Amino acid sequence: MAPTFDKPIAIIQGVGPGTGSCIARKFAEKYPVILLSRTPANYEGIASEIEKAGGQALGIPTDVSDEASIKATFDKIKTLGPNGTQPKVAAAVLNGAGSFVRKPFLELTTDEFLNGYEACGYVSLSPLPPTPLSPLHQLPLHQPHLPPSQPPSGVTNLPPQKNSRSAFFFSQLTLPLLLDSVPTDTSSKESYPPTLIFTGATASVKGSARFASFATGKWAVRALAQSLGREFGPRGVHVGHAVIDG
């Protein structure tokens, strides 16, 4: 049976040994964290650390690029409040990398370019198991953002994990929860706007030579973040895009 949470939760996608684990640790200092990754094996280290430190963590195997998978996950999340009600959501973080393709533009194939635009990158490429909800004692080992000088050995392309599609699905499912969590009393110093955060990279703002595919996908997510910020900021939800390399 899944636990329930009285406090507002933070939903973290793409937890791993680099940026993702740091995000999970930071949010776990204040909120119960819901950790999304394609395979349960990927969320086994950090959750144990979080719970030993007195925090709360719950992992749900989720492919954020698959509409049915992510919708099933959010159906579960909506029951994690007191007595099976919808919990308040303080923050949601989409921490995705991108398909690493570094080659001259005129040598790019159609698949390579589109994979870079849609790819979620080095996020757990193993198949999603049919496991239902799994309580976390540990967290997802999401592959880190790899700098241009460190592509995986012998790899120039990765299966399409659909970064832009993932950002669309994740945003459409988290924003209603964030809107429902906008505080009515904003005078308190402890009152923070519910927040949706996307992580990016230098390629989100700078399209370097031979990175046409990678940069296109990164720019697309940043553009989405800007649009959502202008639409939902006036309604009380903060939307941010953070450039984090490494």
Number of helices: 6
Strand runs, count: 7
Q: H/E order of the elements? A: EHEHEHEHEHEHE
The helix-and-strand class reads alpha/beta
Which whole number gives the mean pLDDT?
A: 81
Any idea what the shape is?
A: globular
Strand content: 5-15%
Main β-sheet, in a few words? Answer: 7 strands, mixed
Task: Describe what this molecule looks like in 3D.
The chain has 246 residues and is of the alpha/beta class. Helices cover 31% and strands 14% of the residues. It has helices at 19-28, 46-52, 67-77, 110-118, 163-180, 212-232; strands at residues 9-13, 33-37, 57-61, 89-94, 134-135, 195-200, 238-243. The chain has a seven-stranded mixed beta sheet, sandwiched between helices. Strand 6 (195-200), helix 6 (212-232) and strand 7 (238-243) form a beta-alpha-beta unit. Helix 3 (67-77) runs parallel beside helix 5 (163-180), helix 4 (110-118) runs parallel beside helix 6 and helix 5 runs parallel beside helix 6. The longest helix is centred in the last third of the chain and has 21 residues, at 212-232. The model is unreliable at 120-161 (pLDDT under 50).
